[in-house]
Amino acid sequence: MDDFEKILEQGINFSSAPKEQADDGKVKTKAKKKKYITGAHGSGSAKQKAKYRTQRANRKSQRKKK
Fold first, then answer.
1. 37 touches 43 (CB < 8 A)
2. HSE-CB for 5 with a 13 A CA cutoff
3. Strand ranges (DSSP E) for 1-66?
4. What pTM value is reported for the model?
5. Sign of the CA dihedral running 4, 5, 11, 16
6. Cα separation of 2 and 60, whole Å?
7. How high does pLDDT run on average in the chain?
8. C-alpha span between 33 and 44 (Å, rounded)
9. Which of 2, 39, 48, 60 gives the lowest tally of CB atoms within 10 Å of its CB?
10. Exposed, middle or buried: residue 16 (CB in 10 Å: 0-12, 13-18, 19+)?
């Protein structure tokens, strides 16, 4: 009954959940790794995606120059 009396006298204190750690520098997904983005690891689809990324980057840089 001690716990019950303590709760009655002091109330219940609900604290917030522990905060997750901020970015710890680790790459969490394969798609964010440098070799995967550039298509250097040998996958055909990654090379194709890298080609599209460079085309998109070139379009954006050309728009800024105008």
1. no
2. 2
3. none
4. 0.38
5. negative
6. 69
7. 76
8. 16
9. 2
10. exposed
